[in-house]
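Appendix B. One record, verbatim.
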Amino acid sequence: MRQRGLAGWVMVAGVAALSACGHVQSSLTPQSDESRAIARTWELSAWVAIPVLLLVLLALGLALWRNHGNGEGRTRDRNLWFSVLGVSVLGAGLLAVLAAQGDGQGRSPQGAATDPVDVRITARQWWWQIDYLDPDPARRFTTANELHLPVDRPTRIELRSGDVRHSLWIPVLDGAQDMVPGQAATITITPRKVGRYRGQCAQFCGVQHANMALDVRVDDAAGYAAWQAHQRAPANAPTTRATIAGRAGFNTACAACHAISGSAATRPAGPDLTHLASRHALGAGATPLDRGTLETWIADPQRHKPGNLMPVVPLQPQQRSDITDYLMSLD
């Protein structure tokens, strides 16, 4: 009884520790069909594995106790090994069945989605490029580091890597999926609860691997449609002296790497900035986005995210301030 009580408290403590991750990034709070399938497999595995472990330990203890000091040494050894071998084979068989079942159930369903949203996510050092696909080119758009999904509707996501090996993991919505250079993988996610969640790169990909977060929003149908319409719209035109000067400065200093819809900036080497000010973070979660952090980022990109690939662009203070004003107007 004491051993069982201890095992129970250990399990409770482990679950509590994992739950501390919060509902935005915890496999223990599944919010999609796919993550719920994984959770069911995990729960079944836990409830089978724990009794199997206790059974093996009990058999070992009984074998040692019953044979201690009784009979010949060879007989004691034979009884001990038969007991342990029998229980171990039983446990291994049960765990093998669970592993086979979990391998099938934990996979994201493919090919069965009806009316899916099509998205392509390309992992880069160290940010996420997100392309919303559509047969009509006029309805396509690109964003960065922020993934929106409609609730109760499947989203088919094509995964690619633009440089080294990465892995996309959104614990609340699905398991981790490797992103290998030169290869494409596809997952399907069907969210069941509106909310804000967090994904991350789960494969070490360089010095800023830890600062490669993905902001995930699950919207209701109306909210998702409104967000899509806003993202398809071109960037706001500048209307003040500062934003007009800022757009000119941006086209001179920044357009070689970034794209802004409806402007002369069309290079996709860095994140698309068409609606930058509507996002909540800079640098894939490296720092919250506000005017102050944006201006310091432009002045010294390495301050917030050392090792990122954005160079320091020589700008006069007024030029930098104007560019910051222009970018903050792009909501």
